Amino acid sequence: MTLKTxxxxxxxxxxxxxxxxxMDVTAEIDVQSETTGKTTTVMTVxxxxxxxxxxxxxxxxxxxxxxxxxxxxxxxxxxxNADGSGTCTSIKEGDLTTLTADSDGPNSDTSITVVSPGVVxxxxxxxxxxxxxxxxxxxxEDAQAKAMMKTYFEGHTAxxxxxxxxxxxxxMTKVGDNTAEMVLNFTELLDGTANLPEELFAxxxxx
Length: 207
Known about the structure:
Helix content: 25-40%
Strand order of the largest sheet: 3-4-2-1-7-10-9
Radius of gyration: 17 Å
Largest sheet: 7 strands, mixed
Distance between the termini: 24 Å
């Protein structure tokens, strides 16, 4: 999953469920070789809004059967949690370029570069993150409307994680020797205060 896709999902949920910005997302790429890897995407919609999404799906709402519906893509596994929230997990393996492509094909936001034998640089551009969130939120330019939107995203995050045998360099937070991650606050993305570099990257030694 790309950064753009994470942002778009927030907007899709906001639009399709009326006000379902209440979610947390973790998008992980595990680089296994120069060309292959595994992606794991976990989305949890809080108990305040998941029942609403479920009800829409059962009623056959406009987006209930579409490709953008919550947890309706091939391979998605839905878990309904005891607290009333819903978690969607998607695990895919294969070619890195295919795994990191956007839903409608290759995108310019993600780059996979082999820098030396067995060493791969994974990078995500961040310049469209805010615009994608605002677009999904209906471009809420009115201050009052934007403030209302922010309450739906308050306290919820998107975590971008890159894993591999060994992380040799990154501008993200390094967790141990084999993981780099960045936690993004949705409200900061919405109001444009997120302090992000032009790209997030990690160099993975797969040897």
